[in-house]
Amino acid sequence: MENVAEEDGIFELETPASEILEEMTYDRSEMMNCVDQQVQTNIEKAQAKQKKNFAKSKNKGVKVFQLSVGDLVLRKVMKNISRKDGKLDALWTGPYRPAKTKLMMLSAVVKKKRKKRPIGPLPVTPALKYKDFPKLLPVIESGEWLKDEHNDNAQAFLAKNFPHIGSLQATWVFISEECQSVGTPKEDFVQIVNVCGNHWITLSNIGCPKDTVTLYDSLYNNLDSGSKAKLHKQIADMLMPTSKHLTIQWADMQKQTGTCDCGLFAIAAATSQCYGILPQDCYWEQEGMRDHLCMCFQQGDLALFPQLAVVRKHERHHRVENTEVFCHCRQPYNPGVFMVACDRSQDWFHRGCERVPKRINKNTLFVCKNCK
Ligand SMILES: [Zn+2]
Ligand SMILES: [Zn+2]
């Protein structure tokens, strides 16, 4: 600084003139003001950037629509579906009609284009053990309906002890309407599946003729047509029938009392199938099933469910159902998907699966890959 003079190694400070001091103070305060302002702008900039990034990750696939009063709309359930429970809940609720009179902008999530399932068998996605198993116990103990993680945990135990048994796939695989991820087990299989979003059943082809599966439904429910079509599709994906039909045998099994224990009966049926015992022969002690499952989860092993000392008489199957399957994908008929018959084999094929020419009428000769 110019006002500091050096003399014999001692610093001697000279007081600056008052106007210089004033000027300095003014400069400093100006600078501090600028700093404040700069800090504020930087904060705003950073916040705007964060907001933008957040919106970018949150609003993926969101499109804004102009809706008018009285339009019919569906509301997307925006909760995180990747979380463990609630995977089987409905993805959309409604229909609703917007009722506000003001100009409204509602956003709706545009469904992502579904990945098409490749033709032919897919590998299975095994059910995994639930890491934090004590969290599973309260639901079992309280008498509530079992969730996907309970059934997956049970299936993972069975897969560990019975490596020769196929499927035991994660239950989420069966959720999507198109069943894109349902695997085709190489071995005879056991599989717990959810139907209608609120009911657990077990499927198995152990001891069944070719292209046939036994269905263990402890409620003896009649499925609605949509759930039935989906289940047929899943069974077709698991069996990949080589003949023209798939057959479902409805097991004459013990009927559950109440509505909450279907998961326990599904696990009990799967367990006895794995142990080589016909589930139809079993008369389980329903009151003891929850305690037994808790004990098994704690011990890390699934043992046979305790039975009453009663010989159960049964007809093995109380209903047998045949469903025709078509095309290279071996799927049942779906009225929503266009099919064409081959002029030689008379077999039916989907347009997508068999590259059927776009323009086709009664006079077009169509010959499938199998007949070429
Ligand atoms: Zn097809
Ligand atoms: Zn043909």
From TrEMBL:
Position of the signal peptide: none
Transmembrane stretches, start-end: none
SUPFAM superfamilies to which the protein is assigned, alphabetical: Cysteine proteinases (SSF54001), FYVE/PHD zinc finger (SSF57903)
Origin superkingdom: Eukaryota
Protein name: Calcium-responsive transcription factor
Organism: Paramuricea clavata
